[in-house]
Design goal:
20 helices; globular; 17 strands; single chain; three-stranded antiparallel beta sheet; six-stranded antiparallel beta sheet
């Protein structure tokens, strides 16, 4: 029987002539902690049923980090519920990895995916890597050898061999088996190993613990490239003696040959990103993730926190315009999400899940706040892309319905209101709409528990927050776009069967985003007065009283002035009232100088009206009507009641 040649990850895990390697950070440097851990490396996410995401780094021989990356590794066990109407088998999983590799290799120009030459086969497809084990005691990686002959164990893909032994076929199940093709080919015998045994498994099968114990039978290896470390190890006796410490010291990184994709590391998971831009603190999120034992995401948050200490997170987080800023950022996120999903609907590669969205925050500078420069990236293999013959996908992740769910999650989920409460509210609203046969936005907004859809829910802590009535229409438009997605999804199920226009929806979203941005950066600025230091409190109070006194005379000018006007005694040129209400090409207000001669010789009605509106503050020595002011007076237009 011919051995199947598979590439190895070992050369990338050791220093070679290139003087750099791939490093897997351990969860702890404490050996006692590592021995108790079933997997010693930092797991970022296990949400994908077919793959786990772990953290790694490319480092130099001096330990300097070149690049932080995420490794998407094929799992040894698939977390799927058996479903006869939607069967999956090993070949379906292989197809998922090939499609994912095809998609990401085409998109590789953006730098998000990193491809190793040894992963690419002669046909241009993705090649699986040899099984990989790790000794936690000696910190060494190795390939699992056959306990009898020492040659590398391999996976059995031959359905005829498997069925002859009473095992499940590779092509018709999710079961995988390691064996020694050399021993089986020469003697017709070999132990077969699985990662974990099930009650229905054949009695002749062994699991991973049996394999690790069987390593003790091996006294030599016939293949020098296999480099089994236990042969000459000083701890061999205690590992394979009566205490059998090997089962706690050796762990499979991947028990079976495995596919792997490398991605640029994400800065933060999408759930944490949405919480942070809503106003959540790092400490609050770390506490919540600790309860869920999400150590990988906690590590990402800590790294992000270190990077953000010297930067400003937002423009208006201390201002009432913070609502507009959060809304703008969330609409920007949804815009990129929609664009990404729409661009992949007709692609043979991936279907998507929000669990596997990661946000990359660009290298920071002082030009933009910390959360304003981000990029969205999906990291998964699109397992839901597998479609049984003649049956539609049961849960089309690219459908408008799914996008609508993500939409309302983004806008409404916060510390006080989780996604299950949002689902309950949506269900109640939809039931009433169906019974009334009126799916208009107005009917959607008024049905159900309206407090769950209040604009204050955009904040992480909505209590005590208020939103200006001038901006409620923007919120309703945002909710309306989400409702339009749900309507189409509920009516048609699949986007391609509806008359709904992706382009029109994207344009409406972009128009709304621009409208929010225009409001956010309008010239009606809201200045924030910082709390003075204790030693400056007395001076601050005096200045505040002076400013209050000055502002009294300006209150009467509301709705009268359209720009700033300066009246000066310095000039003697004739006044031209055609310039009174001029603006520059950007709509900014100009300063117009009015000389005393202008009042004396040509009293413009508009200027006279402005003069008459100045509050009476004559003193005993004030000049008569035809005498003129000996200083410059600044008249400010009303800007929404703001004082300057």
């Amino acid at each position: 029987m011919n051995n199947i040649k598979m590439p190895s990850l070992l050369p990338y895990l050791e220093f070679t002539d290139t003087k750099f390697r791939l490093n897997f950070p351990l969860i702890s440097q404490d050996g006692s902690i590592l021995e108790k851990s079933p997997f010693p490396f930092l797991i970022i996410s296990e949400s994908d049923p077919f793959a786990r995401l772990i953290e790694a780094r490319f480092v130099t021989d001096a330990g300097s980090e070149i690049k932080r990356v995420f490794l998407l590794l094929q799992k040894d066990e698939y977390h799927l519920t058996r479903d006869e109407l939607r069967p999956f088998n090993n070949q379906d999983i292989d197809q998922c990895w090939q499609k994912a590799f095809l998609f990401y290799s085409r998109k590789n120009q953006d730098g998000s995916a990193i491809i190793l030459a040894d992963q690419i086969g002669e046909d241009g497809g993705l090649i699986s890597l040899q099984s990989l084990f790790f000794c936690k005691s000696k910190r060494i990686f190795f390939h699992p050898p056959c306990p009898v002959c020492g040659l590398p164990l391999q996976q059995c893909y031959d359905d005829d061999i498997l069925t002859s032994l009473g095992f499940q076929r590779y092509s018709a199940s999710l079961k995988r088996y390691l064996f020694c093709p050399s021993c089986f080919g020469s003697t017709g015998k070999s132990d077969f190993y699985v990662f974990s045994l099930e009650s229905s498994d054949h009695s002749a099968l062994k699991d991973r613990w049996d394999l690790i114990k069987d390593f003790g039978r091996l006294t030599e290896v016939r293949n020098r490239l296999n480099r089994f470390p236990c042969i000459d190890c000083s701890s061999r006796q205690e590992c394979y003696g009566s205490d059998c410490l090997a089962v706690s010291r050796i762990v499979p990184i991947s028990f079976y040959p495995f596919y792997m994709l490398i991605f640029e590391a994400g800065s933060v998971n999408v759930y944490d990103f949405l919480s942070l831009i809503s106003g959540a603190s790092f400490d609050d999120l770390e506490s919540r993730l600790s309860e869920k034992q999400e150590s990988g995401r906690i590590n990402c948050l800590k790294a992000l926190k270190r990077n953000s200490l010297a930067t400003t997170p937002f423009f208006f987080d201390k201002n009432k315009k913070y609502f507009l800023e959060v809304l703008y950022l969330k609409l920007s996120f949804l815009g990129e999400l929609v664009q990404t999903i729409f661009s992949r609907i007709d692609d043979p590669g991936l279907d998507l899940s929000i669990d596997r969205i990661w946000i990359n925050l660009a290298d920071q500078s002082d030009l933009l706040p910390f959360f304003w420069n981000f990029k969205l990236n999906f990291i998964d293999i699109g397992g839901n892309a597998v479609k049984p013959p003649f049956l539609p996908k049961l849960f089309p992740y690219s459908s408008p319905h799914f996008l609508g769910i993500i939409w309302f999650y983004t806008l409404l989920v916060n510390k006080k209101q989780d996604v299950s409460e949002v689902y309950v509210t949506l269900e109640k609203k939809i039931e009433k709409i169906v019974s009334n046969d009126d799916d208009s936005l107005e009917n959607f907004l008024k049905n159900g528990a309206d407090s769950a859809f209040s604009p204050e829910n955009i904040f992480w802590i909505p209590d005590g927050k208020s939103v200006s009535q001038d901006w409620v229409s923007l919120w309703e438009k945002s909710i309306g776009l989400g409702w339009s997605l749900l309507k189409i999804g509920l009516r048609t199920g699949l986007m391609e069967n509806s008359k709904w226009s992706k382009d029109k929806f994207q344009q409406e979203l972009e128009n709304l985003r621009k409208e929010v941005k225009d409001k956010l950066f309008s010239h009606e600025l809201n200045f924030v007065q910082a709390e003075p230091a204790p030693e400056n409190k007395a001076i601050s109070d005096i200045l505040a009283k002076i400013m209050e006194k000055w502002s009294i005379g300006l209150e009467a000018q509301k709705d009268e002035l359209e720009k700033t006007v300066a009246i000066s005694t310095a000039g003697r040129e004739r006044f031209d009232n055609t310039n009174v209400v001029s603006e520059d090409e950007y709509g900014l207000e100009e300063t117009v100088i009015l000389s005393p001669d202008d009042f004396r010789k040509e009293k413009s009605p508009s200027v006279q009206a402005d003069k008459d509106d100045i509050p009476a503050t004559k003193g005993a020595d004030e000049p008569e009507e035809n005498d003129f002011i000996s200083e410059t007076v600044i008249l400010y237009p009303d800007n929404g009641g703001n004082k300057r």
